[in-house]
Amino acid sequence: MLHTFQPGQLLLDKYRVERVLGAGGMGMVIAARHLALDELVAIKFMLGGGSQADLTRFVREARAAVRLRSQHVARVLDVAALEDGTPYMVLEHLNGSDLAHMLRERGPLPVSEAVDAILQACEAIAEAHSIGIVHRDIKPANLFLTRGADGSPCIKVLDFGIAKWSASTAKMDASQPMGSAPYMAPEQFAATNQVDPRTDVWALGATLFDLLTGKTPFHRDDVDSIQALMHAVLLRDPMRPRMLRADLPEALEAVLLRCLDKDQAARFPSVAKLAAALVPFGSEHASLYAKRVARVLGEAETSARAVASSEVERTAPVPQLVVATAPLPQFEDDSAEGTALQTAAPVSRKDRRVPLVAGLVIAVAVGGIFLGMRLGRGTAASPSTATEMLEVRTPPPLEQPSDIATGAPITVSAAPVTSTAAASVADTPARVEVPPSTASQARTVQPPRRVVPAAPVGTPSSTSSPKENLYGRRR
């Protein structure tokens, strides 16, 4: 049904029409005064006998807006229908204009002004995300600039009509792309079931791109249709903002391009992280805006420096771990090959004692060998010495070493060595002869406290008395 509204017309016995604010194919917005409250309001009508989906969208917008308490969302005061069934929504009246109108009138905005507008929008979007609502239609036309009580600029986010609700029973048609094409993320075209808060991060970046340059990210001469635009969003890189506006900081360009990354995981994970990254480019109020956004989402406040550091880490190549090890041995069975880097298992106290004891044993053995070599070098009288005799003596008070049980003298005869083998005399096995009468008792003899090399005595005769070692074992 076609409706015409004239100034002074009375609606529902409580609203008096003052003027038409705007009209489109599906609806109209008028300014009217509430007679009982003497307050100016805006009334939005859905006209033309829309489908059930249009009605669902209309009611969805009202329900989403009424749940949000942010000062950056236009308040919904009432939802009802006229006598003929035309749905309407009563909202707070806003004085000002949307950012799309400002762009047409002024051209690209100053950096701090554009950034502040996006930061304020982030607060409203953060509250929506906190209760499971994704806007899906952020663009300059849906950001309305008005003034607060103190005259400071205040952005209001409009039109939650196609918002995605995470726990809604009234589902929109997920197979149909929804939104405004120049600001839509790739997943809104190709994978609508993957729409999530990062979809709004893309749209906020695309909107800021437009506010700063006067162009949308994929605007080109050859992109002259929805199909061409969709192809560009899905397959082509966005334009670099500094090519359109050279005075933009490089760091701000990096923020915009990260918002417009086709990979959702590569974008800012939340509007709070985006707000923190934008703080250095806003006004003196930018930090306050970012803190509010973080508190709304329950996230820890992130400094701009930390966000910049994470941006460097994200774009820098990941260093490869290089482990310097000796070449691994080759095995016939591939399963026996080891890896160069493994996770160390916990070492028990018992396991730690084993290497210590082994080390002590090795140290004692090396010391014995070294002492033997020293003894061997000390007994060599001259290079021409062909043979030598080692005599083992016990310390005083005994005059002559003997078996404790029998008193028989104990001497050890070494095998002949040549001058070229003098250094290894300690390694030459000794021949020990023990008298039969004392063999069983000689095992009780204790080792001597010191070993004194005897002076060379020449070649031993074949009639030498029997010799035995310290432990009485016959060789």
Quick recap of the structure?
It contains twelve helices and eleven strands. It has about 475 residues and is α+β, with helices and mostly antiparallel strands. The longest helix has about 30 residues.
* C-alpha end-to-end distance: 126 Å
Can you tell me the CATH topology of the largest domain? Transferase(Phosphotransferase), domain 1
**What Rg do the Cα atoms give?**
47 Å
Shape: elongated
Q: What characterizes the major β-sheet?
A: 6 strands, antiparallel
Strand order of the largest sheet: 1-2-3-4-6-5
The total of helices stands at: 12
Named at the architecture level, the CATH assignment of the largest domain is Orthogonal Bundle
Low-confidence parts: 311-349, 379-394, 398-406, 410-415, 417-435, 437-445, 454-475
Task: Write out the CATH superfamily name of the largest domain.
Answer: Transferase(Phosphotransferase) domain 1
Structurally, the number of domains stands at 3
Q: How would you state the average pLDDT, rounded?
A: 74
Domain Protein kinase: 15-288
Transmembrane segments: 354-373
GO molecular function: kinase activity
Pfam family, one: Pkinase
Describe what this molecule looks like in 3D.
This protein has helices at residues 52-67, 99-106, 111-130, 186-190, 197-213, 226-235, 241-244, 250-259, 271-278, 286-297, 304-315, 349-379, and strands at 10-11, 15-23, 27-34, 39-46, 76-81, 87-92, 97-98, 133-134, 143-147, 153-157, 164-165. It starts with 9 loop residues before the first strand and ends in a 96-residue tail after the last helix. The chain is α+β, with helices and mostly antiparallel strands. Residues 311-349, 379-394, 398-406, 410-415, 417-435, 437-445 and 454-475 have low confidence and may be disordered. The chain has 3 domains: 10-92, Phosphorylase Kinase, domain 1 (2-Layer Sandwich); 97-166 and 174-315, Transferase(Phosphotransferase), domain 1, CATH 1.10.510.10; 354-444, no CATH class. It is built from 12 helices and 11 strands. The radius of gyration is 47 Å and the shape is elongated. The protein has a 6-stranded antiparallel β-sheet, covered by helices on one side. It has a 3-stranded antiparallel β-sheet with strand order 7-9-10. A two-stranded antiparallel sheet has the order 8-11. The longest helix has 31 residues, at 349-379. The chain is 32% helix and 12% strand. Helix 3 (111-130) runs antiparallel to helix 5, helix 3 (111-130) runs parallel beside helix 10 (286-297) and helix 9 packs antiparallel against helix 10 (286-297).
